[in-house]
Design goal:
alpha+beta; Fumarylacetoacetate hydrolase, domain 2; six-stranded mixed sheet
Length: 241
């Protein structure tokens, strides 16, 4: 009798982030936050809230877990002439959220650690989709669209708000902002996500980008940082033949 539990195709191994101090973090899902810095919202042509009361609800989208790149090598993607960088704080969830809406004052209990990463975007495809009122999944969720650096435990990173998130491309500073400028901070975002999804250990959340997004080209070298605590080095390579 044939065993009905066997895999009919080989199962893919989960993508894993290296953890400072040892070990690896297996990735389950990747959630992303759009327009979470007022200056970036304005540069993208959107209206930024003037106060917390005017924030509305956060904008969420997702990337596949296997879009995360840990090797530092990012192949230039197909079907675009406008690959843009967006530097982001990455939040790693280390325990399952309780059932129901996660209270803001308990959200920090879920956080295992932090990294810095890039939300790479095929901006021309995104603009074309927006113009037609269509979803822009192909602009965000493509292969190798999320290079992420080493994961550092939350206790080592400490308080986030005063820290500066930045990106240099070929040694030139392109993006820089303190995390105090986030429209929705980490506990608030986890609370809002919990209304829509069951947050689980292994989930990543990319928290949004400040102003200064711009094009990348083959050969460009990127260095993303959160002060001197988190770092990512990556290089854009020529597209595969």
């Amino acid at each position: 009798m044939t065993d009905p539990s066997y895999d009919v195709v080989p199962a893919a191994a989960p993508t894993r982030l290296p953890v400072r101090g040892g070990g690896q973090f297996p990735i389950r899902r990747v959630y992303c936050v759009g327009r979470n810095f007022a200056d970036h919202a304005r540069e993208m042509g959107a209206q930024a809230p003037a106060s917390k009361a005017e924030r509305g609800t956060p904008v969420f989208f997702a990337k596949p877990a296997d879009a995360v790149v840990t090797s530092g090598e990012v192949p230039y993607p197909s079907a675009t002439r406008e690959l843009h960088h967006e530097v982001e704080l990455v939040v790693a969830i280390g325990r399952d959220a309780p059932p129901g809406d996660l209270p803001v004052d308990r959200a920090a209990e879920l956080v295992y650690g932090y990294a810095v990463g890039l939300d790479l975007t095929r901006r021309d495809l995104q603009a074309a989709a927006k113009a037609k009122g269509l979803p822009w999944d192909v602009a965000k969720g493509f292969d190798a669209s999320a290079p992420v650096g080493e994961l550092v435990p939350a206790a080592v990173v400490g308080t986030l708000a005063p820290r500066t998130l930045s990106l240099e491309v070929n040694g030139v500073l392109r993006q820089s902002s303190t995390l105090a400028q986030l429209i929705w901070d980490v506990p608030e975002i986890l609370h809002e996500l919990s209304k829509l999804f069951a947050l689980r250990a292994g989930d990543l959340v990319l928290m949004g980008t400040p102003a200064g997004v711009a094009a990348l080209h083959p050969g460009d070298v990127c260095v993303a940082r959160l002060d001197d605590v988190l770092e990512l080095h990556c290089k854009v390579t020529a597209p595969p033949l």
